[in-house]
Design goal:
Order of helices and strands: HHHHHHHHH
Strand content: under 5%
Radius of gyration: 16 Å
InterPro entries: DUF924, TPR-like_helical_dom_sf
CATH superfamily of the largest domain: TPR-like
Largest sheet: none
């Protein structure tokens, strides 16, 4: 089995939809133990050839966008390969690699845009969730809108400030103290 197949199989079958967005120290440790060396190769640019086909791209996006959030939870390295993932995601979407995967797996082609601190990427993510995730995208669309709302308000994700050693404004501190992203999501859910 190739490393790409191992990454995809682990994320889709071992972790699965019920664990994709759940904080679970056991999953974090498993990702770190099994895939950190692969992430380090991607981080150094040694896996760029993976992004030349749909399967390689899918594995690369999981490795560089999803796995660091598990491996390095609450650390600056959780975001260290975001720019790589975003660039590969954009190329893959233009080449319609995303459409080779069924829902809900397809969402991982769009997550690098949802994790971006650029409003244009956020707008694009919302559009993609609307147009390319018609069957299972409703919950993802709500999250995409909440992420976009935070970027509209602050131009960045205040929840990352500590990990990235960034200072927080008074407004950001108040936002976080009042429930932050979760409260924003709750508000959007109430008006949906």
């Amino acid at each position: 089995m190739s490393r790409q197949d191992e990454i995809i199989g682990f994320w889709l079958n071992e972790v699965g939809p019920q664990g994709w967005y759940k904080v679970d120290p056991a999953v974090d440790a498993a990702v770190r133990d099994r895939f950190q060396p692969d992430w380090e190769l991607a981080h150094s640019g040694d896996l760029s050839d993976w992004a030349t086909n749909p399967k390689g791209t899918f594995a690369f996006l999981i490795l560089t966008d999803q796995f660091p959030r598990n491996m390095f939870r609450d650390e600056y390295r959780a975001f260290a390969t975001d720019a790589l993932a975003r660039a590969v995601s954009k190329r893959a979407i233009e080449r319609h690699f995303d459409m080779r995967y069924p829902e809900p797996e397809r969402q991982f082609f769009y997550m690098p845009l949802m994790h971006s601190e650029c409003l244009m990427d956020q707008d694009r993510c919302v559009r993609l969730m609307l147009t390319r995730m018609p069957e299972t995208g409703a919950e993802n669309l709500l999250h995409a809108k909440a992420h976009r709302e935070v970027i509209r308000q602050f131009g960045r994700f205040p929840s990352r400030n500590t990990a990235l050693a960034r200072g927080s404004s008074a407004n950001e501190k108040a936002f976080l103290a009042d429930g932050g992203y979760g409260k924003c999501l709750e508000r959007l859910r109430a008006t949906a």
